[in-house]
Amino acid sequence: MAIIERPSTPALAGSGAPAVVTPSQAYGVLKRPVSTTGWRSWVFTVDHKKLGIMYGVVAMFFFLVGGVEALLIRLQLAGPEGTVLSAGLYNEMFTMHATTMVFLFVMPMAAAFANYLVPLQIGARDVAFPRINAFGFWCFLAGGLFLNTSWLLGGAADGGWFMYQPNANALFSPSHGVDFWGLGLQITGIASLTGAINLIVTILNMRAPGMTLMKMPIFTWMILVIQFLLVFAIPVITVALFLLMFQREFGATFFDVSAGADPLLWQHLFWIFGHPEVYILVLPGFGIVSEVLPVFSRKPLFGYRFVVFSGAAIGFVGWGVWAHHMFASGLGPVSVAVFSVATMLIAIPTGVKIVNWTLTMWGGKIWFTTSMLFAIGLVVEFTIGGLSGVTHAVAPSDTQQTDTYYIVAHFHYTIFGGAVLGLFAGFYYWWPKMFGKMLSERLGKWNFWLMIIGMNLTFGPMHIIGLQGQPRRMMNWTEARAGEGFFNLGFWNRVASVGSFVIAIGVAVFLLNVWQTHKKSSKTPKAPLDPWDARSLEWMTASPPKEHNFDAIPTVHALDEFFHRKYEVDHDTGEVRKVATGEEILAAEEAKADKHIHLPSPSYWPIILAFALPLMGYGVIYNRLLIVAGGLVVLLAMFGWALEPSVADDSDYDPPADGGGSNKELATIG
Amino acid sequence: MAMWLFLGSECLLFGGLISTYMLYRGRHPADLGPDQIFDIPFTSVSSFVLLMSSLTMVLAVSAAAQKDDRRTNLWLTVTALLGATFVGGQVYEFTSFYREGLGFTSSLFSSSFYTLTGFHGVHVTVGIIMLMALVGINKRSSVPGDKAEVVELVGLYWHFVDVVWIIIFTLVYLIPS
Question: How close is the nearest chain A Cα to the Cα of B153, in Å?
Fold first, then answer.
């Protein structure tokens, strides 16, 4: 629990400028960290913006790790009988590529945007539980590092990202890789779960006055849907991972067929989590383009309500389609039919969104910035991925395609084309907001075209080789059996490998762009306050925002509040004309700044608690004593956390007269 | 509200564990199944103890609402003790099952049984830690009734854990296989 702000007290309202309270008094076992500069200000921070940036940096790092893994896979398949990787290493490579991209790049990168933007978009000063927010980030980092230390400790997980049982039990996968995988995901799962609860409470309870749910920016809406998916999906994978851990480490036989177990149990548990998970991956991208398209088309989002409700519908129906991953496992005709129909149904809300985006652009004055290009790229590429998805919904055709490269093509078009392009649209759109500098548009266009051409070169041919029957996870192919003419597997595999390097160059251009923008000698001017003529609340404050986000919490009157403050309809001519610039609106807001703003104080406990978890993880694998040690640290940290007051220095406030002041921190209760 | 969301999430956690148990409850050697091993009178008593702890939790919450810190602390401690009694009973039960030959790895039934009830036991233990922390916070706080809402939150969690036990007790112990 934490205080976001205390009601201003007249006794302290002496100065005109907003006074940010910095605690100085120690209370509890450890002194509160108070520095506002240097590394300490980052490591112990609870500021949602700093945590958002840290999420972004770490996720970008894992994106590069996962990318290198992907390039190694493509190198292996670039020629016949590839010898780049051994068979075992190849298994580890594709498992870790998928795991890294899903759990350590797309999810945390979405968390980065959500963390940074949601409070700004809803006009709040921070999230509801800032310390839990910090804890979530450190859990993610701890889990990600823990997962990747397996490379150095006898080999990584090698059972595919879905880790089917009994293939991934100790008999067939004797290294500790799968143990690292299970425990690492358990830890990142804690990060997602706490983050999800935190953001839901933030969104539902901390919106600025006047912002009803139907006046909420669409990105925040999509984030809300995703967090609900996470809250209910994570516990299911938690159960599965615990069963896996008991099986591998403590001799239980949950998935041991010879002991009478049913390996389908794993598949059901995994995919009940796994299918909502794919929407968790793609909806942030949807949210981002739903913000980007209207801004650069100079039109409001077409059918805002439809986009919101179709997002929510995806969230609901997403729970009823998990078994379409298991059509080939012999579920019986009734289940297959039901899940087949449900899967076709889920194409409807997705189609609604595509139509809405297209109609948003229709007749708009389109401004082709890099961000807009990525957004249009998403609409096109995701539609391709969606259509191949509908072909999987047809069960007989799916049985043909199961475990071929056709599936690989499909999910890369949805996840790369849906999630990754969306995230890149977000980078270019919000970069000036987050860092106060514009990324170069010239390099940005290179980045876009390289990535879009690269992805089609890489994943397009996979449709062909998949329908020709090349199985996924196949570690090499031979010229003798590659086939003839247009359908020659070798040719298309080479094309895909070339394409993957084109994507890599595209990503390198992005990194170059970031470096050029931020290097010391950079002549890049400071970004204007409102470079895109944007519509939502996060642009109604300084770039980058002050620590307390808004000098005065704005009162919201409309969807696209910032736009409505800038423009008015002329009642005589019916034309829309500009009545204020962003700078003027910001100045007006600053003039009525809140006198006394309280922010949550930094804390040591989140990082201590988070790093105790991998300690327990190593304990499970190597030495039971470490579990006890880690457990003690966890226990200590939880008590320390609970006993730590929300804001350190009590002398900052008048004592609450009737307990009302302290209850403020719990204002989040339903 | 965060607690409600968390409990919603917990529902699925226990849902998964209970499904696993229901799937595997019949898979055991003939002489070591649920019908042979459970001591229903004993478990009924410990279940009753846990249910009573819900009552004392209600008393703690109402005392906190009336800003009566002394009574709040008293009832919180009693709740924690009743919870500890339940956990103690579970430890005793596990030991006696183990003596009768039902190890964690003996059969699918035993693995899923110990996992499910063990997870519940851990939840009760975490609840006890939360109760103790609450007593600690209350002792430090100078303002009476300061933490009424925290007490209510912990109360929510505690009742949830109890309700889950009612479901587990019915499904695991009472329904013959």
Answer: 9
Give residue limits of the domains in chain B. 2-174
Residue A10's pLDDT is: 36
- Predicted confidence at residue B172, as pLDDT, reads 87
Q: Chain centroid to CA A534: how far? A: 23
Do A668 and B1 make contact, defined as CB atoms within 8 angstroms?
Answer: yes
Q: What are phi and psi of A32, to 5 degrees?
A: -70, 135
pLDDT of residue B144: 64
- Joined tokens for residue A168: 């991934």
What token pair was written down for A484? 């003839």
Q: How far apart are CA A1 and CA A290, in angstroms?
A: 32
CB B161 within 8 A of CB B124: yes
Given a contact cutoff of 8 angstroms between Cβ atoms, the answer to whether A142 and A614 are in contact is: yes
Inter-chain touch A253–B105, beta carbons under 8 Å = yes
CA angle B120, B122, B124 (to 5 degrees): 70
Q: What SS3 string covers A202-269?
A: HHHHCCCCCCCHHHCCHHHHHHHHHHHHHHHHHHHHHHHHHHHHHHHHCCCCCCCHHHCCCCHHHHHH
User: What phi and psi, each to the nearest 5 degrees, are found at residue A568?
Assistant: -135, 150
Residues of chain A with CATH 1.20.210.10: 280-517
Question: Which structure tokens are listed for A293?
Answer: 């398209």
DSSP 3-state of A626 = helix
From the list B15, B20, B150, the residue facing A243 with the nearest CB is B20
pLDDT in tens, B131-167: 988 888 888 776 666 678 888 899 999 999 999 999 9
- Tell me the nearest-neighbour CA distance from B108 into chain A, angstroms: 6
On the question of a cis peptide bond just before residue A432, with omega within 30 degrees of 0, the verdict is no
Do A244 and A165 meet the contact criterion of CB atoms below 8 Å apart?
A: yes
The span from the CA of B45 to the CA of A310, in Å, is 50
Q: What is the pLDDT of residues A318-372, one digit of tens each?
A: 888 888 888 888 888 898 999 999 999 989 999 999 999 999 999 889 999 999 9
Mean pLDDT of chain A: 86
Tell me which residue in A198, A655, A659 faces B145 most closely, judged by beta carbons: A659
Instruction: Check residue A654 and give its pLDDT.
Output: 32
CATH number for the domain whose boundaries are A280-517: 1.20.210.10
Provide the angle, in degrees to the nearest 10, between the axes of the packed helices A177-205 and A130-149: 160
Alpha carbon distance A228, A222 (integer Å): 10
CATH of B2-174, picked from 1.20.120.80, 3.40.50.2000, 3.30.2350.10, 3.30.565.10, is 1.20.120.80
DSSP, collapsed to helix, strand or coil, labels residue A476 as coil
Spatial separation of the C-alpha atoms in residues A247 and A250, rounded to whole Å: 6
Residue A228 confidence (pLDDT): 94
